[in-house]
Amino acid sequence: MNCNLYTAVFNTEFSHRVGRTLLSGFVMTLAMLFPAFTAEAQVSITTACGTLYSQDFDAYLGTSATVPAGWSSSVSAAQYQGTGTGTGTAGGAWAYGSGGEYSFGSLRSGSTGNITSSVSFVNNTGGTINQLVISYDFEQWRYANTSGFTVTGTGALGAVSLSGLDQNGVAVGTNGTVSVTSKSLTVTIPGGIADGVAFGIQWVTTDVTGADNGIAIDNFSIAAPPPTLTLTASAPSTATCGDIIDVEIKVSSSFTAISSLQYSVEWDETKLMYISSNGLEIGGIGGDPIIGDGDALTQGELIYVWF
């Protein structure tokens, strides 16, 4: 797992009693930033926390050559219909939208049969993805009946219900007026996706009597909530006025390969003066991450003086 940047905030509370400074505790909040993935046949997921992947389809032009990496449509090459706003009647795969704002569209017909739109991923994080938040916008660009999408998982998500992402269309409206029928859908599901295992999602058009709706997927994303990290700290419980206080901080979590940490410190400037700290990279021994300035170290220090 390569979570490349961690930003941490340490809130250090001290109380002043009879000339002594007592260490009350620490609270740590981590916010995670992640690198972009490398496009390939399956989208490679390389970090197991935060936003794993997003796609707005704005570069998709309704051709097989512009289908985003990792995505596919079950239509034939001849059934890619280009761009449009819902006025076209030809069945197939459409890039619904205009002006550089497009979506991954489908218009079912007798010649296409049900159209399946799919995206496939592989977990290359080095660990297990334990939870997923899946979101997308359902858009209807052409109206005829109540046909829509049925959404299911593939691979490691094959047995997981994604019914919260299903959406029926509406039989009224104006072709090309997406604002009437656009709807944002989100589900949170258990992951349990081991490293190296593929998983995916597919949207299948539903068939309703008569002509079907022109519908689309837009603003798709998957995310994994970051795990809760436990912070413990040790330091002298008391110090006389003017003493230097060394605070050792240890982080415990499910992570086994955290590369680095950036941090800031808050303290009561009327009682404490910050002196120094070492580099505070996360290292550790035996898979238990420790804040130190190298993998060989088992602790890091924040040094204060009471005055």
Provide a concise account of the structure shown.
By secondary structure, the chain is an all-beta fold. Helices cover 0% and strands 51% of the residues.
Structure commentary:
The protein has 307 residues and is an all-beta fold. The protein contains no helices and 21 strands. The strands form five sheets. Strands 4, 6, 7, 8, 10, 12 and 14 form a seven-stranded mixed beta sheet that branches. Strands 3, 5, 9, 11 and 13 form a five-stranded mixed beta sheet that branches. It is elongated and about 85 Å long. The N terminus and C terminus are likely disordered.
Structural class of the secondary elements?
A: mainly beta
Succession of helices and strands = EEEEEEEEEEEEEEEEEEEEE
Estimate the strand proportion: over 45%
Largest sheet: 7 strands, mixed
Low-confidence stretches: 1-40, 254-265, 279-307
Q: What's the total count of β strands?
A: 21
Figure out the total of helices: 0
Chain-wise SSE layout:
Layout: E1 5-17, E2 20-33, E3 43-45, E4 50-55, E5 71-73, E6 80-84, E7 92-98, E8 101-107, E9 116-123, E10 129-142, E11 149-155, E12 183-193, E13 198-205, E14 214-224, E15 230-234, E16 244-252, E17 262-266, E18 272-277, E19 281-285, E20 288-292, E21 301-306
Parallel strand pairs: 1-17, 3-9, 6-7
Antiparallel strand pairs: 1-2, 4-14, 5-9, 7-8, 8-14, 9-13, 10-12, 10-14, 11-13, 15-16, 16-21, 18-21, 19-20
